[in-house]
Amino acid sequence: MRLLFVHGAGGYVEDRVLADALADQLGARLMMPRLPDEDMSVAAWAGPIARALEDLSADDAVVAHSFGATILLHVLGTAHEPPERATLLAMPDWGPEGWDVADYVLPVQTPGVELTLHHCRDDEVVPFGHLALAAARLPDARIVTHDVGGHQFEGRAADLAARV
After folding, report:
1. pTM for this prediction
2. Which is the most buried residue in 8, 20, 38, 159, by most CB within 10 A?
């Protein structure tokens, strides 16, 4: 089994702790492409993510964190063969009620992909209220809340692995 972990904005190093812990809990080999800090466009991030998805099998897991979760959803909406499921951690909402950045607003549909959204109540980066906004945009997604863990889901790897 492999774990494709899509890091957040500027988070390749910072997210590595969570990605490694999650891969360890899953007994998976970690795949974590380094995405560009200097170009935060959907296009710059979507290409490497789409290529990584092409290499996956049905037994592999897909987890994306924060900004990476946003871009993963953009890719899933257009993927030729999307994975059956994906786990999204601390995903920001980019609509007018959230951070209001039109370039990143989520696509309306992710056909055939079972989504699980996780968010910690004590997230100091992406406000917890963004989870409700994402849930409204993705009404079929399963919602999992954590009281503690912050933006990096500290100490939550086992909980996350149980729901991937």
Report:
1. 0.94
2. 8
